[in-house]
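## Example pair
The file below holds two records. Each record gives the amino-acid sequence first, followed by its structure token line.
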Amino acid sequence: MAREKEAKTNVMRILDKEKIPYRHYTYAHDGEAVDGESVAAMLGQNPAQVFKTLVTRGGNGFFVFVIPVKEELDLKAAARAVGEKSVSMLHVNELLPTTGYVRGGCSPSGMKKQFPTVVDESCLSFETIIFSAGKIGAQVEIAPSALLALTEGSTASITVHHEEA
């Protein structure tokens, strides 16, 4: 069992290679995707600091958006952020062939191909953010600036802003 804990994901190997400091977390799962809010709770972390990776398709290809787990992607804002008329969520059965990742284990780093990546600007209010390490049950924590450099990404306001009642 100790060997399992030491198993590095492709994301961790990339972070090691790039000499990006990170913290690694694991959580229990039964091989199924666990929603991000539950992951944040299992790790005892602020859900605003735990991010999920969403893959979309636009007229010019695929785009990756990284947003807090409690939030919802604003597809119009996302499209504006990447200069597209519109983007739509990639169907779950297209995720593995397109990215190399399964639902619940998709990371913005280490995909088969690096797609244009936009991280919600709320990441900048944290010293570190947590996201999938590339497989269900594994997460990594790094500085937002390191993630942006690693993915050659940008930031934008890309979540749905619900009006306060």
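Second record, same layout:
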Amino acid sequence: MDKLITDEIRSWIGRSDEPIHLVVSRRDIIKYSLATEQLNPKYLKGDEAPPMFLSGADRALTEIADLGPDGLRQDSLLPDLPLKRVMAGGVKQRHLRPIVPGDALLITRSITDIYEK
């Protein structure tokens, strides 16, 4: 039996944030590619988004004053856990085709499980 995961925390399983609508721009792709040192020309030209492009696309823009002491913002889809730091357990993304400039995406974040490591 888990020691830190209470029934209250488990009640968060199945919760979702409001869907996020995102229109991908060539500039977004280029900025991400440069920041993550993606050297493939199709990424550097912004013709196609590299893998993991969506890993931060759903993050809200946050002012420094709104960040916690650890530099992270309070995530609306994270229960109050009795820990100083939390480890992301995994992400599942479904891509039907490559992401290109002009794509209108619908991003939905959901908690599918919570467990102690």
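Notes on the second record: The two ends are 12 Å apart (CA to CA). The chain has three helices and two strands.
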